[in-house]
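Methods: example folding runs. The two proteins below were folded one after another, and each record is reproduced exactly as written to the output file, sequence line first and structure-token line second.
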Amino acid sequence: MALQRNTLTLQSDALALPWDALALQSDALTLQRDALALQRDALTLQRDALICSLPLGILISVLALCKCKTKNTLSKRIMNEQLELNEYKQQIADLYSRRGETYDEGDWHPRIAHRLVEHAHISQGQHVLDIATGTGMVAIEAAQLVGFAGRVVGVDISTGMLEQAKRKIEALGLNNIEFVLADAEKLNFPDNSFDVVLCSSALIWMADIPKTLRLWHQLLKPGGLIGFHAFADTAFVGGVTVQKVAQKYGVSLALSKPTGTIEKCYDLLKTAGFEPIEIKSEQDGSYIRLDSLEQAKGMWFGGSHPVPGQFPNPMKQLSSGQLEEVKAEFEAELATLVTEQGIWNDVTIFYTFGRKPIA
């Protein structure tokens, strides 16, 4: 009996050996798989370290060549949607869509957009909202500064402008930027979403500037920065001259007046809850040459042109005869401003910044 029992035990052990061998093989395969996963993670870390060490210009070129599944997923969210605008906003959107193809010509718009970004001291990893982004001048520069860890959203009501902006980011291969067709006075981003909110050359187009600034205040994280251009009430000789002549006919045009002094800019930010506030005044401008007097006369706008912050255009209250009289006086007034160099077109700019307090 003992011999039979020993024989059965040996047979059982012999049958178990193949299973034990298979278990060992399985464990070995698991270890190999884990080792490969570790190698893959190490290669990923090496790749990320290499990418982060590249100069910005080379980095952009590398990104442009990447065929990642996520390429341009942010930038593709826009423009086939319909945006419901009131008549005032639709006039502005149409005006700037017509200007979209030529908006980047010349150096003035790019230069003051760059100065706004420069004053904002944007850093890597920040989330930036660019209001009235236009062709994306501010947004694109900001996206290059915030890097992979950051994010930029540009909003505008003009499809023509956004189409130009989208072409530019596709050419650059930027993936950390998104353009959204949206009204800057009706944004629905969550509160405390952004580190920086910027608005280049567009604040005076807002129908209700104090209310709009309060909305943008909500969108900023505590300690976040708002920055915008404001133009002195002496800026843009065409508008100043129309204001002067129209006043004789009982028509008041606001134009740059709501933000036309440092004190007005300060009060707007203070009332909206920003503190501290810093405003830097920089004189800009150029001469309109004598042989370009017709160009200066082209700065006239009658009742059909949208007027910043006022709807309908106050000039519409004048009869056609009165409009002709105002235009004739406008051109005569310009003629009195002619010097040997031409007509000086002052564009004094207030670079205005404020912070959302940390509660």
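Second run, written to the same file directly after the first:
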Amino acid sequence: MDLYNIAEKTRQFLKATWGLYKRYRSNSYARRAEKLIPYYEDAESVEWLRARESYSKNMDRCIFVKTEKKLGNHEVYRIEEFDAWGGVVIVYKDKQDPIFRYTKLVFEMSNVRKKCRFISEAEYDSSFQSVLEEGEVLFPAMGMEYMNGFAFSARKKGDWNALVIPRYQILVAMKGWQYFDMFEPVENEIVVDAGSFDGQTESEIRKWGGEKIKKIYAFESDPENCKKCRAYFRENGLEDIVQFVEKGTWDKQEAVWIKATGTSGSSVRGKGDVQAELTTIDSEVGSDKVTFIKMDIEGAELNALKGAKQTIMKNKPRLAICIYHKQEDIYKIPEYLLSLVPEYRFWIRHYCSNQWETVLYAKCL
């Protein structure tokens, strides 16, 4: 047997072993998550929990739009990129392609569903002229490996200016009021925003709570994002209610290297490009009676909650915590919260057409 065959057999063996390990891990996470079902307050939360379990096993993004459809929610996904256009022509290579199946489901449940039509790439190529009607845009529902060839074909037909390339290789649509559609504000709200990004969440907090907002602790560690936040707070009259902490939230105070992106995806890395300060929520809020904590910090949520242990035990704030960055967060985060405050009860809501933006809500009943 030559070296190539040995290497290939070894690669296949390692791939199969890794696949078995991932399935074992996903099944283990699902079992732990299922034990927490008695602490969820409605059937919709259990549906979303099981959608996350299913996705962790087979990585099929379609589960999220299928689950939304199954729940019978009549609120449509919003695809803002297409609002101003007369219509959308979706071109696909193969109806069995998972990217096409996902895209079709999203458009069928979107605000532009009545303005879209589907044609195959073979149909598109068979015409020497553009197939677009006035005001329509061209949307390829296919893998990135086919995009260059399709773009070349679109350019030849004169459709170049109407071509819309999907972000992240797949269509993304949003719905609902993430973080704020579960709880009503109370008097003298003191809000912790862990992961301020560009500062706009603080406007959402003020919109949600109005005069009931007493104070907002806004945490952000990415230096580029901090610049955006300072400018946004100044330009939008938020400096009087926002205490801006230019640090990340963690389970201890330390300086670390982060991968700074200037986007919502900045995260702690072993090897980063910018040094940033991390702190604990407990040490920053002191004796303030925190009433609400929102967290979206790229997988650091559990560590940040550990750094808010005293605040959570003392004040029992309502929580909106993202649980989509790490598979194990679907059980680790609620388990940890119950270990601190057994009276917490949970809800799960999902705000994106694919695997992002799943939020765990918690409140003491």
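Comment on the second run: The longest strand covers residues 213-219.
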